[in-house]
Design a protein that fits this description.
The chain is an alpha+beta fold and 502 residues long. The protein has two domains: 92 residues, Single Sheet (Outer membrane efflux proteins (OEP)), CATH 2.20.200.10; 366 residues, Outer membrane efflux proteins (OEP) (Up-down Bundle). The chain is 57% helix and 10% strand.
Length: 502
């Protein structure tokens, strides 16, 4: 069979085919990464604890979430969410979809061969037969062999650039999966900390209710003996009812926080989860490596995805330019042809056909519009890439501002809580000795209760801020630093450094 192919296909065509395959060029503009429109350093980066000296990894993006989150209950919840969350499953499927689309686009660069056969039976009227009345009225022909469908010789890189654009879309989608993973990890942590804060507030309210009920009983006793007024009694009762109303509100908040956590986890929370750690800053790694703004360009998945999209738009410009040039394609067939089916595959019936075709655009207004469209989309991609960088810088800067201020704020609020507690003790003492009215006690109770609530809220915000810093620096897509999976940059090859399944 090989000898038959060699004999049937003229050797003089081989240089033409090889030249066509090897001499292709690309009309895409040379890609240059835009200059990052951000400062060279983060604000507050020198004043936060997470400067990187004591961090477990050189970059936050390389720091696994199991190392960053130290609460065993939270770790288990994150692992469950990564397995069951529907947004995560959609993101994984999107990557497979983009991979398949890239494979389809890239297959256009190679010819398509197929094996087939056909038969043709024709009856010709006597008046139009080539041999007159003596020619047979019915003619038959049979063909079988290997055929090549229309194959475009990509001299000007149109198909190559379309394939490159699809490849970049695939890589961008893979980075988008990492972004979904990072967001999911941070969302689970946020929902968990909000739930824990609601539980802490509920405990605070229970203790406060017990204290105010004791105060109410004291005022009731003083009222019964004629020492306290009816106003004092009603004020004390109002303080009790206020806490009871707050408890119902907090029950609602806690239930909603639990619902949000279950939605993110994607399944009912199991009963065998480990007990939670003590609520506080020790639930998170104390030091997060910050690095420089330039590190975000190669560490944050959404920025990498935006650059892949930009390179893909650049390739589409090359494909639009190539449409202005001649389109050269070939079709061919190698096999057998015979008027008789029984002798179709005999040696004397070998058959080949080679059909080149060229199309030169002369007037097509759509070509100029296509190029303008590709160029406009490239400009949009540049602006989106730059905006993604600016957004990332702002997110890191905001989180650093929080890291630089939350600790001192919490220390001040601890001192304020101690002051408010002492003020309440003195107000109670002055009321019991008859120096002041119950209004002073009421005011002190409200003040202490407000400070304690605010302290828990600010504590939660400080935890969420550290999670936001970890997320903004690109952390959360690795389970632990030992995975050591390379980040796919703009020049990487599909299939290397893939996103881990878990």
């Amino acid at each position: 069979m090989n000898r038959m192919i060699a004999d049937a296909f003229p050797r003089k065509f081989l240089p033409v085919v090889l030249t066509a395959v090897l001499a292709g060029c690309s009309l895409a503009p040379e890609y240059e990464r835009p200059v990052a429109p951000i400062p060279t350093n983060f604000p507050y980066s020198d004043s936060v604890n997470g400067g990187g000296a004591d961090a477990a990894a050189g970059y936050a993006a390389d720091l696994g979430w199991k190392e960053f989150f130290t609460d065993p209950r939270l770790r288990d919840l994150i692992a469950l969410a990564l397995d069951n969350n529907r947004d995560m499953r959609i993101a994984v499927a999107r990557v497979e979809e983009a991979r398949a689309q890239y494979g389809i686009a890239d297959s256009e660069r190679l010819p398509t061969f197929g094996v087939g056969g056909n038969a043709q039976v024709t009856r010709t009227p006597e008046g139009v037969r080539m041999g007159g009345a003596e020619a047979p009225s019915v003619t038959r022909s049979y063909m079988a062999g290997v055929a090549m469908t229309t194959f475009e010789l990509d001299f000007f890189g149109r198909i190559r650039n379309l394939s490159e654009a699809a490849r970049r879309q695939f890589l961008a989608t893979a980075q988008a999966q990492r972004t979904v993973r990072i967001n999911l990890v941070s969302q689970v942590a946020e929902a968990y900390f909000r739930l824990r804060t609601a539980q802490q507030l509920r405990e605070l309210m229970a203790k406060t209710l017990e204290s105010r009920e004791n105060t109410y009983r004291l005022v009731q006793a003083r009222y019964d003996t004629g020492v306290a007024s009816a106003l004092d009694l009603q004020q004390a009762k109002g303080q009790v009812e206020t806490i009871r109303a707050d408890q119902q509100s907090m029950r609602r908040v806690e239930a909603q926080a639990l619902n949000a956590l279950q939605l993110l986890v994607g399944a009912p929370l199991p009963d065998d989860l480990p007990p939670p750690a003590v609520f506080g800053r020790d639930q998170l790694l104390a030091s997060v490596p910050v690095g420089l703004p330039s590190d975000l360009l190669v560490r944050r998945p959404d920025i990498i995805a935006a650059e892949h999209a930009l390179i893909g738009a650049n390739a589409n410009v090359g494909a639009a330019r190539a449409a202005f040039f001649p389109n050269i394609s070939i079709t061919g067939m190698l096999g057998f042809a015979s008027p008789q089916l029984g002798g179709l595959f005999s040696g004397g019936n070998r058959y080949w056909q080679y059909q080149p075709q060229i199309q030169v655009p002369i007037f097509n207004g759509g070509l100029a519009g296509g190029l303008d469209l590709a160029q406009a989309r490239k400009n949009i991609a540049v602006a989106e890439y730059e905006k993604t960088i600016q957004t990332a810088f702002r997110e890191v800067a905001d989180a650093l501002a929080g890291e630089a201020t939350y600790w001192d704020q919490l220390e001040a609020m601890r001192a304020l809580e101690a002051t408010a507690a002492e003020a309440l003790r003195l107000a109670n003492l002055r009321y019991e000795t008859g120096v002041d009215s119950f209004l002073q006690v009421q005011s002190a109770e409200v003040n202490l209760y407000s400070v304690q609530q605010a302290f828990l809220q600010v504590g939660m915000e400080s935890l969420l801020n550290r999670v936001a810093l970890y997320k903004a620096l690109g952390g959360g897509w690795l389970e632990d630093s030992a995975q050591n999976i390379q980040v796919e940059g703009p020049g990487s090859v599909p299939g290397k450094g893939r996103v881990p399944a878990k």
